[in-house]
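Human: If only I could read backbone structure tokens as easily as an amino acid sequence. Underneath my words sits a plain record pairing an amino acid chain with its backbone structure tokens. Take your time, and here it is.
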Amino acid sequence: MVRWRSGTVLAVRRSWRGAVELDVGVDGAPLRALAYPALVGTPAPGDRVLLNVGALVMGLGTGGYALVVAIPDRLPADPEADGSTRDGGHLVKARYTPLQAILLGVDEEASPHRAVMEAAESLDGMPVVTADLHSALPAILAGVHAARPAAKVAYVMTDGGALPAWFSRTLDGLRDHLAGTVTTGQSFGGDLEASTVHTGLLAARHVLGADVAIVAQGPGNLGTGTPWGFSGVALGEAVNAVAVLGGHPIGSLRISDADGRDRHRGVSHHSLTAYGKVALTRTDLIVPGGLDPHLAAVVEAALAPLAARHHLIHVSTDGLDEALRSCPVPLSTMGRKLDQDHAYFLAAAAAGRHAASLLP
């Protein structure tokens, strides 16, 4: 369950929107730790902190931090006293955990967007790109903006990975390039909070004014190596939500010739299951051009069984390499950079390009 430690803050390292990285001394050794000031307050050198060190001890890649649970000798003031516009709501996320957060939902009575959300019924055909991993977000965005630089793109974050949006340095770097972030389900920390993917999509369209939305989980990914045991199964449910709300679903395929695991080479089994078995509506599945001929043949063979239930759309990738190299944040998936897993990022950018092509 939880591996607890108590330590002392030695130094404050880098910070980004919503998160602070620390060096914490525990039993005479420094640990790398992360704190979310909105939850626990702002740590300073000399503070005693309580830590959850489970992910760090287990060597989990994305979650390789000790996480600050509390600064017990210097608790922050109650949120009602700080004038935050995020307070006054009743939307509870990370529910019934010791760090449950009570937030203002975009459609609650106290929300300034209540009237808009009450009237919102449709996405009005808005293109919505769904992706398995958070690392696809900047590449999809690059593909959209390569074709339509002025397009307003919103990110709808699901709760399959990290719950706090603040964990993502990618999101911090994309702030000036996104219309905003809507955190849905148990995830929190976006510009808007929504209880479901459905309300998150409606908020992206009608509150943020998005032309295109991207749906993906936060950083991290739960996977057990079994056919159904991975968080990306929710992709298929997101496709269904887009269709129910009158949007245009577009599937960004997880394609790789660099992943060391056979189940993720060619087209990942995550994409094949989510789009091939869970999604109940026809979706534009984007097949990128410009792949190595052998990889292209493997991809076509893997996707052939899906052709009866989805639109397989081949999209040129001419010029997308330049767009990816101009991305405002570093590109990385499972520790692999752009040139180490070029096909993965190219596939995501092609999905973004297709979404842009559907705009009036």
